[in-house]
Amino acid sequence: MNVFRDLLRIKKFREDRAELQVLHQRSLAQEAREAREDAEALLTKLLFDGVRIEDQAYQELCQRIVRLRQIEDAQQLVASLRQREALQHDVVRGALDSERLAEQALAEAREGLREATRQKNKFVELSANFELSQLRESERKEELELEEVASLRRDREDWDAHDPQEALP
User: Fold this and answer.
1) CB 3.0-4.6 Å disulfide test: which of 18, 66, 98, 162 passes with 70?
2) Residue 130: inside a domain, yes or no?
3) How many secondary structure helices (H) and strands (E) does the chain include?
């Protein structure tokens, strides 16, 4: 029976470890989700600010007579805004990929936990069935012993009831 207890402890340990893995992966998935949300929020802010800054720059150019260099500076400003937006788009895509990977790892950890729990429950059931069969076998042996004792008692009573003088010729 110690073997079953030891094996059950191992199964429980594996289940506990799988639970910890799920918690860890859930935390990583939450961090990835937050990073993606932050990256998307920054992208939205950059897009909004970029439009505002671009409009402001062109309005300033349109209000007065300007030199070619000032127009080129405004175009360069707009190009740098677009470059920042493109870089942030890449950051968002990377955050989305990280989030997908974290969610996939979380799903795998959950599946591992389901499997560990299934294995433990299966073992608990097998152990209970074994204990039940051991109990039944023990009861059967006890009944056989009681029957044997009762049989010996009947034989002894029969023997005691038998008159030894009748057996002599």
Assistant:
1) 66
2) yes
3) 2, 0
Over residues 117-133, the mean pLDDT reads 88
102 found inside a domain: yes
| CB proximity list for 95: less than 8 A, separation 6 or greater | 32, 35, 36, 38, 39, 40
Asked if the structure places residue 167 within a domain, the reply is: no
Phi/psi of residue 123, nearest 5 degrees = -65, -40
Tell me if 166 is assigned to some domain: no
Q: Crossing angle, helix 2-62 and helix 68-161, to 10 degrees? A: 170
pLDDT category of residue 148 using cuts at 50, 70 and 90:
confident
Residue 95, Cβ neighbours under 10 Å: how many?
Answer: 20
What torsion do the CA atoms of 104, 110, 112, 117 make, to the nearest 10 degrees? -170
**In CATH, what number is assigned to the domain containing residue 74?**
1.10.287.1700
Q: In 1-67, which ranges are continuous DSSP H helix?
A: 2-62
Q: Which tokens is 149 given?
A: 């004792």
Tokens of 97: 């990929």
